[in-house]
Amino acid sequence: MAVYNLRNVGFKIRTKWLLQEINLELPSGKFIALVGSNGAGKTTLLKLLSGELQTSQGYIEFMDKPIVDYSLKSLAHHRAVLSQHRGGNFPFSVQEVVMMGRLVHLDGCKEGPKDNEIVQKALERMDLSSFANRTYSTLSGGEARRVDAARMIVQQTGVYLLDEPTNHLDPKQQVRMLEFCKESVAEGKTVIASLHDLNLASYYADMIVILHQGHLLIAGSPDQVFTSTHIKEAFGLDCNIWRHPSGCPWMVPALGGEDVSDEGMEYDMPVTPELFNHHKRKKTHVIEGESL
Amino acid sequence: MQARYLKSMSVLSLLLPAVLLLCAGLGAYYISPWKIPSILLQQEEGYAVLTMVRFPRVVLAALVGAALAISGACLQGLFRNPLAAPEIIGVSNGAAFGAAIWIVMFSNLMSLQIGLPIAAFLGGVGTVSLLWLVARSSGNFNVVTLILAGIAMNAIAGAGIGLMTFLSDDEQLRTLTFWLLGGFGSATWSMVLLILPFFGIGLFILWSLGSDLNAMSLGESEAFHLGVSIKRLRLKIIFGSALLVGSAVSVAGAIGFVGLVVPHLLRLWIGADHRWLLPASTMGGAMLLVLADLVARTVVIPAEMPVGIVTALVGGPFFLWLLIRYSREVLRGSL
Fold it and tell me: Does B225 touch chain A (CB under 8 A)?
């Protein structure tokens, strides 16, 4: 079943089209990564999916119903969003900020013990228990990101939309954030995230959507999508595609300007220097052979 | 968390009646606050002073203070900025401009008392709406933009009031000048009754916005994601705060800094949660202005100082302190 069904979707500001002719079905219960260079339209697409922006052309169905037919409240019951913006000029505590995620469930009432319990669990899950009484606006970028994620959890929705969730996070926290996405998918949720790190996307996501200059370049499994041709087209970057021990494609930019091929897909990632050198020699040999 | 809020709220709600009674007793003619109940019951000496002079004055000052403070708290929430206050961003002066138009252009209708708060309300609505338009089109509305926009608003309203003064005849000029001086020296029960409906409706609208304003502090998009209708919230705050500021200005002139100081101090004390901050600001604003009025009318007995001077003496330095405190954030552009 598709969570989102996009038919010929376009979005423009005045006369400039930011997205055009997007036809896409996003399956439920999967981790879907949106990738593309800066300005490719990832954030715009996420804003269309969250209902924050409305299409200039075509239509979006969200769980078999046009997204424009949802009320604000019922949208808030069905999807939660982790955006890049961080608000907070007022001295709210971490716990209070997370509790705001319960807004649509509280519906004007004061929070009860059940809400407190849900918030505590979310804080624990994000390793924030010791932060509960800290002031949100004094946290570091990475800590605030985790608080935002906890707020997303307590909204208790089936769909998570995340705009570059790994931004501002150190390498360990990036992995933790993506592990969290993966766990959420295992719980039956649909996670749609824009990501810049192609290798993390390849490793964690079930489906990759590449956007290029406002158009859909390709969508599919990491294996189908991550080829050197696609990477070259979308990012203008020469990349060798190797295979990670887990089986997913692993992209290594050709920094030395060497020739590029997908043939590394035939091999596992070189894990030791010897293997790496061996691989390089072999490759050089092949290329020389061809040129001769 | 909850317990802390409950504690500070009960302290506030015990303090408020105490402050009101104290201020009703103190003044050029001293009445012991302890005797007030018996004076009222047995109509002893001082009864007339209390019921005809002190009570209307204290109640009016309390209503005006409450109106300014809760409007300040809501505008700060709407603009996501601790420095937004009706006086600083020009709402008070906009309302005063509306009232001045009424006094000068519609002087043949002056017997229609309700016109004054309505005109002030319309002036307030105009100002907040204009500010919101500026905020929207400039995208990121930081404190510098906000204060500059406030300077512009105050300048426009000031020019408008000047124009009205220029256009007025002798009789109108007297009314206008007298009214512009502001203060509670001429407070009567009929003034209280006049603004009570405005006050009631405004308070009713704003008090319910606590959790929406909390979500709004995260950002407009974030509030939208949590299910808050920004349009409706904005409309309610523009309408509600203009009602409150308009009615306050129409009876007391433009009194500065209450809407800035009260929410800020309370935020330091009880925290940022608007569900508690809004009622707390209402009580705190009432107390602050009643006390300021007490100072204004006792410090130079038998004369009276305009209450605006007292609030400006407290509020001006406070505003500077806030600017210094936030200067780093302002420079960084995060506020």
Answer: yes
ipTM above 0.90, yes or no: no
Question: How do strand A190-194 and strand A159-163 relate by DSSP bridges?
Answer: parallel
Host domain of residue B278: 2-332
Q: What is the pLDDT of residues A51-75, one digit of tens each?
A: 999 999 999 999 999 999 999 999 9
Per-chain mean pLDDT for chain A: 87
Which region holds residue B43: left if phi is over 0, alpha if psi is between -120 and 50, else beta?
left
- The domains located in chain A, with CATH, are 2-225 (3.40.50.300), 238-292 (no CATH)
Q: How confident is the model at residue B83 (pLDDT cuts 50, 70, 90)?
A: confident
Q: How many structural domains are present in chain B?
A: 1
Residue A286 has pLDDT above 60, yes or no: no
Cα A61 to Cα A72: distance, rounded to the nearest angstrom? 15
Nearest to A252 by CA among A233, A222, A272, A231: A231
Contact B227 A75 (CB under 8 A): yes
Which amino acid is it at A40? Answer: A
* Closest partner CB to A103 (pick from B219, B227, B272): B227
Cα–Cα distance for residue pair A273/A280, rounded to 1 Å: 10
3-state secondary structure of B3: helix
How many CB atoms neighbour CB A23 within 10 A? 12
Q: What is the CATH number of the domain that holds B248?
A: 1.10.3470.10
Cβ–Cβ gap A100/B218 under 8 Å: yes
Contact A92 B214 (CB under 8 A): yes
Q: Are the beta carbons of A96 and B273 separated by less than 8 Å?
A: yes
Q: What local confidence, expressed as pLDDT, does residue B142 receive? A: 65
Percent of chain B topping pLDDT 70? 94
